[in-house]
Every structure is written in C-alpha cells, then in structure tokens.
Amino acid sequence: MKVLVIGGTRFFGVHLVNSLLSRGHKVTIATRGNAKDVFGDKVERIIIERNDPSNLKETIGGDYYDVVFDNIAYCSNDVKGLLSSLKCGRYIMTSSASVYTNQHIQTSESEFDPISYPLKWCFREDFPYNEAKRQAESALFQIYPQFGSVAVRLPYVIGEDDYTKRLYFYVEQIIKGNSINVDNLNEKIGFIDSAEAGDFLAWIAEQNFVGAINGNSNGTISLKEIIEYVELKTNKKAIYSSEGLEGPYNGQKSFDLDVIHANKLGYCFTDLNSWIYKLLDKYIRTLEANI
C-alpha cells in the first residue's frame, strides 16, 4: 500500500514507519522539514505546513494514498485543514485516552461517542488537550465519514525514546535525592510501549475496521510499585514532600483501556510487566552512568 505518515520522525511515529516498512508498504513521511529522520532511502519525504490549508492542497492535494496516518491532529481545525485537501482510502488518527471524561479500569470505546458529541470548530489553544482531542474526533466522524476512518485511542505511551520523560522523572528524582510531590501513589495506571503503539497503528492499516479503537498493554501498575522497584534497584529512598517537584502523573486516577475490540480483530498486546521493569532498568543505568 501507498502510505503517508504525518508525524513520523520521533517517538512512536518512528516505530510506526519502521513497522509499515517491515510489512512491505511504500511510505512517505510528511514533516515541516525541521527534524532529521533515521530512514535513509527507505522512505519518500514531503515538507508540509500543517496549519496552512493552501500549503496542504499544494503539497499533498494532488496525490492519492491508500492510508494516511495522522499523529498530530490535536483539534477539529487540524482535521478540517487536512481532510479538505486529502485524497485517500483510509485515514487513521492517533487519538488519546484523554477523550474519556470518566476514566476507570477497563474503559471501553463506547464511553465516548464522537458522532453524537457537540462539534465545535477550534484550534488547539482554544481548549484543554482532552477537549481539543474530543473535537478532533467529532470533526472526523461527523464531517468526513467518507474516509473510512479510525481513531486509535492510546493511554500513556512510554519508552526509551519518550521525549516527555514523565516516567523517567520519578527514577531521576530518586537517584538524585530530590524531593517529589506525589498525590496518587496507589492508583493503578495503564501504559503502552512506544514500539507496540507503532506496531498496533501499522496493523490497523491492514484491517477493515472503521471507528474508534483502544490500544493498551495488558495490566496496570501503580507509582508505588514503580518507585519501590527503583528504590530496591538503586538502594535509595524516594523523598516525599508537598513542597517537592510535582509528579507528572499527579491527579491521574486508576484507569486503563479495554482492548477486547482489538483482541477480537486479532491483535494481542504484550503484558505490561513483561517490559516496564526492563525500561526502568534502562533508565536507572542511564542515570547512574551520568552521575
């Protein structure tokens, strides 16, 4: 298939492109041209300006793609600007678990319906991230049903290449002896590995499914379990203080995403415990090597 990937030069976007290539697809990556990529002559490249509809028409409006992946659709106007110009068979948006207003263990796709949700045309800065993503999905499914679209809802994506460094934060502060303010030690949180997120997205391209679908590693873990593991491995104790550095996951209640829909379609996610401790070990080694 001829595939266009918007947002394929970092984090799980890189894994998505690599997975598509391994599956034999012809891949073009669309970027602003500011970041180098690692794909060499394996991909084609085009430079676009995502927020300029006239540029989108000029750069991608004349080509047809079997599948378009959009990893950077943050609001309804992002969707309108792109899909008003695009010619493709399928459009796959990377969405987020944040669209769910009442997150809990085994949150299912039916708990947010973008087709019935009141649509507002907006820019990213008009709403908080969660509401802007709801509007992006609503625009997609209400206004552009002809694209046979999928919204892939993911929990926190983590990995060695995680530029947000949210999980890394906890390891770093323990090793450096900095105090931290954590308000949700015992809440059970769902994650997905960045490589698995990319693979799941690439797999979706080869399915006939249309609509919203969850992706999530099997199982959950609490910050208490994470911190106690780091304490054990480093022989250092976390220092808790209300005046300490604010934990990036503060405020997050227990949740993960129900993946029975993906399972029924044939995708099997890894168990969280099979890789998250290895990731913590890598974080520990990196930090200890630099101290």
| Global shape | globular
The helix/strand order is EHEEHEHEHEEHEEEHEEHEEHH
**Which regions have little confidence, pLDDT < 50, spanning 5+ residues?**
none
Helix count, DSSP H or I runs of 4 or more residues = 9
Overview of the molecule:
Helix 7 packs across helix 9. The protein contains nine helices and 14 strands. Strands 3-2-1-4-5-6-11 form a seven-stranded parallel beta sheet. Strands 13-8-14 form a three-stranded parallel beta sheet, covered by helices on one side. It is 33% helix and 20% strand. The model has no long low-confidence stretch (mean pLDDT 96). It is globular. It has 291 residues and is an alpha/beta fold. It folds into two domains: 2-156 and 194-214, NAD(P)-binding Rossmann-like Domain (Rossmann fold, 3-Layer(aba) Sandwich), CATH 3.40.50.720; 157-191 and 218-253 and 273-289, UDP-galactose 4-epimerase, domain 1 (Alpha-Beta Complex), CATH 3.90.25. Belongs to the NAD(P)-dependent epimerase/dehydratase family. Its EC number is 5.1.3.2. Residues 3-70 form the NAD-dependent epimerase/dehydratase domain. Pfam families: Epimerase. GO terms for molecular function: UDP-glucose 4-epimerase activity.
Defining key terms:
UDP-galactose 4-epimerase, domain 1; single chain; Rossmann fold; three-stranded parallel beta sheet
